[in-house]
C-alpha cells in the first residue's frame, strides 16, 4: 500500500475540499486555545465556568465585581491583577463553623483572588503570624487577603501547640518534620514575592512561651501581630459564640452526651454561664495575696505578648487596638499595613450601618460573615451591671500594667488618664482611671 493511502485513512471525509475545510477548522480552534493560554488576560469561557462551579459567585456578579476591583487597584498593577482575577475556590461547603464566608471554607479568605504577582505559586511558611487575642477581632485580619500583595486563609492552622512546640524546642525533627509539611500544605499556595499570613489565637494561650520559642526556630523572620481589646465585651463575645455553637449542635440533633463532651458549648444557658464566671471572678477577688489577684484570662495581654517580644524583638511585634480597629479603622489598619511593609492606605474601610462594623471598601466591597459582630450589638454592661462591675475590678490591674507596657504613659496618673481619654486604647480608661 502506498504512503498516500496510509495517511488518507485518518481523514474524516472522502471529499478533498471537505477534508481541507476540516483541517483549517481544527487549526483555527487550536490557535484560538493557544492564544488564550498564552494571553491569560482573555480567560477561556470553559476555564471560567470551572471556577464558577466551585465558587459562591455567579458569573454575572463577577463581571460587576471585576469592574469595581479594577477601578480600585493601582494603575501599575492593573494588568497583572486582571490576569489573576477569579472567584476564590471553595474547599468545603457548609463548614461546622458559621464564621467562614457564607458557610464555606475557601482556598483563601477574600471571595475573589486579587493578586498582583505573576510568579509561580508554592507552599511555604508564613511571613506574618497573628497570635491573638481571641474575640478581639482577629478575624478581621482576613481583610488582608483582599490586598493584591497578601494571601491569608480563614481556617486557623493552630500548628504550634504545646506538644509540637516542645518537640521543636528539644530538636526532635523526626517528630515534627512531617507535621511541618502538613502545616505548609494547610496554608494557601503563594508566590515568592507575596506576603503569607496565618492567624491562630491559641498561640497566645497558656503555652505562649513554648510557642514563641518554637516559632522562632522554625520561622525566624516572621513578624507577629496581636490585637488587644476591652476584656468585658470580649468575655461576652466568647459566651455568645459558645451559645451559637450549642444551638447549631442542637439543630443538628446532637445528643446530650455529645453536647456535654463539646468544649466549645455552653453547659447551661447563657445566664448560667455568666453566673458561673462571675462566681469565679468573686473567688479570685476574695483570694488576693499581697493585693494581687490571679487572672481568670481575658486580660493577660502583657503576659502573653512578652515571650513573642523576647524571641522576635520589639520591632517585629505589633500590638493593635481592637476597639480602634472598629471605631477608627483606616488609621489602625494604616498602622498594620505599614508594619508589614505595605502602603498605609492600600486598603480602605467604611463603617457599614447595617453591620455596625467596618467593612472593606477598596479594592473590593467586603464585610465579614454574619457570624462575626453579633455579641457587640448587646450592651453587656447594661444587661449585666453587677456582674460586669466585678469583672472590671478583676481586670483592672492587668490593664493598668498594659498601659505602661505599651509606653502610652510612664505611670498611670492624672495626666496619663487625660491622654488615654480619646486616643488609642481609650477603653483602658475605665479600668485604670475610673
Ligand atoms: N469588622 C468587623 N466585623 C465583624 N466583627 C468585628 C469587626 N471588627 C471587630 N469585630 C469583632 O471581632 C469579634 C470576633 O473576634 P475574633 O475574630 O478575634 O474571634 S475569634 O477568636 O476568631 O473567634 C466579633 O465579636 P462578636 O460580636 O462576638 O462576633 C466582633 O465584635
UniProtKB/TrEMBL annotation:
Domain Sulfotransferase: 126-361
Its EC number(s): 2.8.2.-
Group of enzyme by EC: transferase
Keywords assigned by UniProt, alphabetized: Glycoprotein, Transferase
Pfam families: Sulfotransfer_1
Domain of life: Eukaryota
Family: Belongs to the sulfotransferase 1 family.
Annotated protein name in UniProt: Sulfotransferase
Protein's organism: Oikopleura dioica
Lineage of producing organism: Eukaryota, Metazoa, Chordata, Tunicata, Appendicularia
Amino acid at each position: 500500500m502506498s504512503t498516500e493511502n496510509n495517511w488518507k485513512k485518518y481523514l474524516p471525509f472522502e471529499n478533498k475540499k471537505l477534508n481541507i475545510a476540516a483541517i483549517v477548522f481544527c487549526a483555527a480552534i487550536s490557535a484560538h486555545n493557544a492564544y488564550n493560554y498564552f494571553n491569560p488576560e482573555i480567560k477561556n469561557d470553559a476555564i471560567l465556568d470551572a471556577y464558577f462551579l466551585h465558587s459562591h459567585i455567579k458569573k454575572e456578579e463577577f463581571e460587576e465585581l471585576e469592574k469595581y476591583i479594577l477601578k480600585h487597584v493601582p494603575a501599575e498593577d492593573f494588568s497583572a491583577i486582571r490576569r489573576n482575577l477569579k472567584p476564590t475556590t471553595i474547599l468545603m461547603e457548609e463548614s461546622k463553623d458559621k464564621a467562614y464566608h457564607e458557610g464555606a471554607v475557601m482556598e483563601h479568605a477574600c471571595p475573589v483572588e486579587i493578586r498582583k504577582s505573576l510568579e509561580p505559586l508554592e507552599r511555604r511558611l508564613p511571613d506574618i503570624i497573628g497570635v491573638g487575642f481571641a474575640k478581639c477581632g482577629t478575624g478581621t485580619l482576613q481583610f488582608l487577603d483582599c490586598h493584591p500583595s497578601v494571601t491569608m486563609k480563614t481556617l486557623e492552622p493552630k500548628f504550634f501547640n504545646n506538644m509540637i512546640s516542645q518537640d521543636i524546642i528539644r530538636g526532635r525533627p523526626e517528630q515534627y518534620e512531617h507535621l511541618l509539611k502538613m502545616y505548609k500544605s494547610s496554608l494557601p499556595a503563594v508566590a515568592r514575592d507575596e506576603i503569607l499570613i496565618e492567624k491562630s489565637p491559641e498561640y497566645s494561650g497558656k503555652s505562649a512561651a513554648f510557642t514563641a520559642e518554637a516559632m522562632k526556630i522554625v520561622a525566624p523572620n516572621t513578624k507577629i501581630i496581636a490585637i488587644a481589646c476591652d476584656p468585658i465585651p470580649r468575655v461576652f463575645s466568647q459566651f455568645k459564640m459558645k451559645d451559637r455553637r450549642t444551638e447549631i449542635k442542637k439543630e443538628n440533633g446532637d445528643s446530650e452526651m455529645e453536647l456535654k463532651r463539646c468544649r466549645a458549648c455552653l453547659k447551661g444557658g447563657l445566664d448560667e454561664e455568666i453566673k458561673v464566671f462571675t462566681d469565679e471572678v468573686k473567688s479570685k477577688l476574695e483570694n488576693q495575696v499581697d493585693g494581687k489577684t490571679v487572672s481568670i484570662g481575658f486580660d493577660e495581654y502583657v503576659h502573653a505578648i512578652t515571650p513573642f517580644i523576647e524571641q522576635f524583638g520589639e520591632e517585629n511585634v505589633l500590638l493593635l487596638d481592637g476597639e480602634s480597629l472598629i471605631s477608627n479603622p483606616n488609621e489602625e489598619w494604616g498602622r498594620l499595613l505599614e508594619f508589614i511593609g505595605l502602603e498605609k492606605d492600600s486598603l480602605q474601610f467604611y463603617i457599614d450601618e447595617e453591620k455596625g462594623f467596618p467593612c472593606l471598601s477598596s479594592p473590593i466591597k467586603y464585610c465579614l460573615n454574619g457570624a462575626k459582630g453579633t455579641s457587640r450589638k448587646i450592651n453587656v454592661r447594661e444587661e449585666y451591671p453587677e456582674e460586669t462591675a466585678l469583672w472590671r475590678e478583676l481586670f483592672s490591674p492587668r490593664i493598668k500594667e498594659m498601659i505602661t507596657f505599651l509606653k502610652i504613659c510612664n505611670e498611670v496618673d492624672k495626666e496619663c488618664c487625660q491622654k488615654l481619654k480619646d486616643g488609642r486604647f481609650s477603653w483602658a480608661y475605665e479600668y485604670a482611671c475610673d
